[in-house]
Amino acid sequence: MPAPKKKARWYFDFISPFAYLQFKQLESILIERDDLELEFVPILFAGLLKHHNNKGPAEISSKRLTTYRYCHWYAKKHHIPFHMPAAHPFNPLPLLRLAIATDCDRGTIAKLFHHVWVDSRENTNFFSIDALCRLPKLDQAAEQVAEPKVKAKLRSNTESAIRDGIFGVPTIAIDDQLFWGVDMTEMAFEYLDNPDCLQSSEYLRIERLPIAQGR
Fold first, then answer.
1. Is residue 91 within 8 Å of residue 127, measured between CB atoms?
2. Phi then psi dihedrals of residue 31, to 5 deg
3. From 1.10.443.10, 1.20.1050.90, 3.40.30.10, 3.20.20.70, which CATH number describes the 6-207 domain?
């Protein structure tokens, strides 16, 4: 009898270049691992920012440029196709709702990420319904994203993510442990294979670390 598959959830928003870069990593990992069941969970990054009273990287001018440069460097270093779209930030709602309308199909998610982060550097209207309808096999996009149940599901996903402690994208959630950002991919899969790795005395001390001063 085969062993049960290991499970993880991946929270993402198409607006995040880091989500795209991690998705490309996850694609490779899923090819190599048949013991993993990964649930794709689209959420609205802006909803997280509003709840936690944070600014996104693109809302701080110097951080915006630094982020874009780093993503370009990271993609080049790891041989990932990458071009900043014609404008950023943009409204990701049509893309998120389309992912939900297609039951978070991995192939559709891959197509949407590629559309944003590879093919849209010349198209200022890339995030519109009209642009999405032109993608292969997505000609019914306008009708799908307008369905009330699709909009409600995106709200529900985002609200549930906030309740579960999600504060940024991308985040890999395994059990009740959160691994935020493309730079925590390796750590997430180390935990997946060995949950006891976070039980050392130093990790446990970190969990109880007091705050010396707030602001």
1. yes
2. -65, -40
3. 3.40.30.10
Q: Name residue 42's beta-bridge partners.
A: 12
Report pLDDT digits (tens) over 70-116.
Answer: 999 999 999 999 999 999 999 999 999 999 999 999 999 999 999 99
Answer whether 0.85 is exceeded by the pTM: yes
For the chain, how many helices (H) and strands (E)? 10, 4
Question: Which value, in Å, is the radius of gyration of the alpha carbons in the chain?
Answer: 18
Q: What is the pLDDT of residue 1?
A: 66
Are 171 and 165 a contacting pair, CB within 8 Å? no
CA dist 50 and 154 (Å) reads 16
Question: Mean pLDDT score of the chain, rounded to an integer?
Answer: 96
Domain boundaries, the chain: 6-207
